[in-house]
């Protein structure tokens, strides 16, 4: 009997360690109550990081045939990065699931054996590490990876046989690739919906940036904001039908300053008025299943994105103004990406204008230089002052080879940029003190 009891206790411990909960409740995931985020039954606020390469780096190792265990060098590197985040008080991160930037993602995903041995193996290990370090993730599902032309642009060979473009994929729920997307959602969300490491699902990264662009190539149909809005609504309904506990956010960037004009055939002639711009946010977020408004914001030096007030004068959408929009729509605002990022000085009109306006800006995070400290502090101060309760900065530690010698690399970490990293730690504490009673 004692052996049986010990076995049961051991099994329960292992299940909880791996994030496979014996019973998962609303307290285990992000939720919204009275317009505020809650976690573990308490109000929740945090400034943390994107860890975009967590799953992708382990995927790459698995694809090479490496054993994905604690001795694997990439797993060890990611394990240490998550340990650092957890040890410094962070509770959540944002991660990318489907590695749509890799040319062979579709070939691997379409093969059931390789899907399990590479894709799901990478996610399993990533979530195990998060659970080990008491971190929860906003999981970007990458739903646009199932669009034919999106995959082709990333040199993936879908071999689907259909000719539907991105507009057709987004607008037709009965299309061939939408059915494949639904199968992906069924399989992936059912596999992980009982894992306590998942805080919230995200549909796709920055899809709204493709809305109503007048430059159409190869006869493809224009992707409208209305089509994207309908797609968000359909996919959110699909996800919430599988997982009734978790929130779903869109993953879109901020809407373009010309969003209303582009949607109404005015092109780039004039920036939106405030009322017209607000109407676009209402349209995109008009969904009872959508409980969160999310944007990405990088206009730190400019103090926001420029539109027009209703009298026609310049008006800047800064963090406080975006929060007002979210408050008007009765939903909390989530910044899925935010940062003051390094800026190169390559001569061109855009760069020349930027550096003329901001001669004291910074070119690199390297060395925790004074200019970088000044602007990162401004970004963090603006964020705390805004009262936005959940933000994931871009980003914590990149293992990509392309970033290692790039002076404009966009990641912070405890070893390379300890001063800047500690500034984020302090800002996170300030935000919690301000928002959480």
Strand residue percentage: 5-15%
Structurally, the number of domains stands at: 1
Task: Round the mean pLDDT to the nearest integer and report it.
Answer: 91
CATH class: Alpha Beta
CATH 2nd-level architecture: Alpha-Beta Barrel
- Biggest β-sheet, characterized? 8 strands, parallel
The CATH superfamily is identified as Glycosidases
What is the terminal-to-terminal distance? 47 Å
Helix count from the secondary structure assignment = 15
What Rg do the Cα atoms give?
Answer: 22 Å
Low-confidence stretches: 8-15, 17-21
How would you describe the shape? globular
Helix content: 40-55%
User: What is the H/E string?
Assistant: HEEEEHHEHHEHHHEHEHHEEEHEHHEH
List how many beta strands DSSP finds. 13
- Structural class estimated from helices and strands: alpha/beta
3D architecture notes:
- The protein is of the alpha/beta class.
- It contains 15 helices and 13 strands.
- The chain has an 8-stranded parallel β-sheet with strand order 8-7-6-5-4-13-12-9. Strands 1-2-3 form a 3-stranded antiparallel β-sheet, with no helix packed on it. Strands 10-11 form a two-stranded antiparallel ribbon.
- Helix 9 links the parallel strand 7 (198-202) and strand 8 (248-249).
- The chain is globular and about 60 Å long.
- Residues 8-15 and 17-21 have low confidence and may be disordered.
Keywords:
437 residues, alpha/beta, TIM Barrel, 3-stranded antiparallel beta sheet, 13 strands
